[in-house]
Every structure is written in C-alpha cells, then in structure tokens.
Amino acid sequence: MRTLIKLKSSRLKTILPLALASGLGLGVFWFWYKLGDNRGYAPDQPIPFSHELHAGQLKIDCQYCHAAADQSRHATIPSMNVCMNCHSVVRIDSPHIQKMKTLIEQGDSLEWVKVHDVADFVFFSHKRHIAKGIACEKCHGKVERMQKVTQQERLNMGFCVECHRKEKAPTSCDTCHH
C-alpha cells in the first residue's frame, strides 16, 4: 500500500508541474495571440457604406472623413454632416442619403458600429502612429478595396508588440498601459 502511495505521489510530483506549465503556456498563448483576435469581423452598418468606392475609386483621403486622427488618440467616426458635404449635391435621390438627410433634420444621427477596437485597458494613439509615418493600412488593411469594412489584423498584444519590435518602437508595458 505504501509503495502505491509513493508511486502516486511521485507521479503527481511529475505531472502537476507539467500540467501547470502547460496551462500557463496555453494562457500566455491565448492572451498574446487570441485575445482581441477579431479578424473577419464585419458588422452590418445602419446604411451600407463602400470604402471601395469612396477611398478606392474616388481616392478620398482617410482623414477627410476620420478627421483629427493625426491630432488625437481617436480617428473618430465621421458625422453625417461630413457625408452631406458631398451628398447634398451627389446622389441625393439615394434612399440612404434621404435617410441621413431626414435624421439630420430631426436632430438625430446614425449609430455606426465600430469595427476596429482594442481592449479598454490599452492606450492607443492614432496621433503617435501617424506622426511616425505608420500607414492606416498597417492596422486597418486595404480598406480602399473593401465594399464592407472587415477587421484584417489581430489588433491584440502580440500584433502590437511584433510591430513595435519591427519598427524599433518602445515595448515597455507603460507604452500602451497607463
């Protein structure tokens, strides 16, 4: 009986650290590579909007609609007034443009669905990245080819740290976590 208990105890001493190390390894892998991996996320929007048309064919600069991205943390989702700068004279018969016009007249707005997002505990500044010459496509993909915007990159810690290393940017924790 004592031999059996010793045998079980010695196996437990071997198996337990391996199980804990494996669990820790899987946890780190999940946190590093999977947490925040929303690649392929492409929510329906309140009205269809084609970046392929606007950014691609018409070559409208990202910052025309996503104003102040070079001056603040956020790129902002454009207000309907930005849309109406052109659409007060272009395609005014479109039911989608009519919907925006009606909402503006009523003092209401569209609720766009955010596609690209990072965890709440991450400090991300568009301003810093634009100032360093990082192209929007690096994180957002080739939106000028997208009929419907889809998240292309992981936008998680692993993605960011890999990029920071490649670009020789700071990788200390307080760079992104304040």
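[next item in queue]
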Amino acid sequence: MSNRKHNAVGRGVTVAEATARDLEEAAALFDAYRVFYRQTSDIAAARNFLAERFRRGDAVLLLARHNGNPAGFVQLYPSLSSVSMKRIWILNDLYVSAGARRRGIGKRLMDAARDHAAKTDAIRLELTTEHNNTTAQALYERCGYVRDTLFYKYILTIGTQA
C-alpha cells in the first residue's frame, strides 16, 4: 500500500497497514491473540514471528488504533487460485483487545481487509474459525461472508503444532 493510512473511521479509530516501526505494539497484541487461543504467552516469540513477516513481506498486518492506542489487528496471508488465476487472501488472524471491544473495531478491521483485497485485485478472502466462536461467526456474516457448504477442509499435520 502506498498510503499507510488505510481506513480512518469515526470515534477515534484508525486502521493502517503496520510496518516494522509498529513491531512492539503489534507483538503485544499478537501475543494476547495467541493467549486467547490457549497458547502460553511468549512476547519474544511473538515479536520474532512478526519481525520475520515484516522482513519477508509474506503477510499484511492491518493495525487498528483507538485514540492513538493499539486496539486490534487483522493479519492476511497471500495465496493464489489456479482456476481463476487470481490472488486470494487468507484472513488468518483477527483480534481486538478486551478493553477495545464493542466499539466496532472488529468490523473496521474486516472492512480494511476487504478493501486491501480489492486493491490488490484478489478474487476472494477466506477465513476459518472454531465451531464454537459464535461471536466471530456473527461478525463475519454481518460483513457478508458465507459459510462454505461445498468443500470439506482437510488437514495434514507435519511436525509439532501448538
């Protein structure tokens, strides 16, 4: 993105593409996100993981701020569709800090992800969520996502996994 400011919204909320300058704030949110998904807190590993993403350019992290303070993020990974010969974005991570919830920040992040996909000529955004994460499912459906009933998802675990 040439313009860092991605999507300014009312009530003191902005969403912008994060860069290495945002690493410390993004790492704190990323660590909290992992804890939400029952992982042990490891801020150093979170920082290293995101630093590698910034260095390689293999992900896009959109960072939400509320009144200038980090409030949440969405992380997108690129993929491709061989059939359509177009880009796909995998919306892999969405998180809003506990103190910033119920302000529409999740919706703003989802909108920013959609806008990023459109600007990069992607054919679609894809995401998965746990079956019991009904709060997130309701948000996704409000944002226009449709639950896939055509395809099954299969997973082959390689190595150790958290």
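[queue empty]
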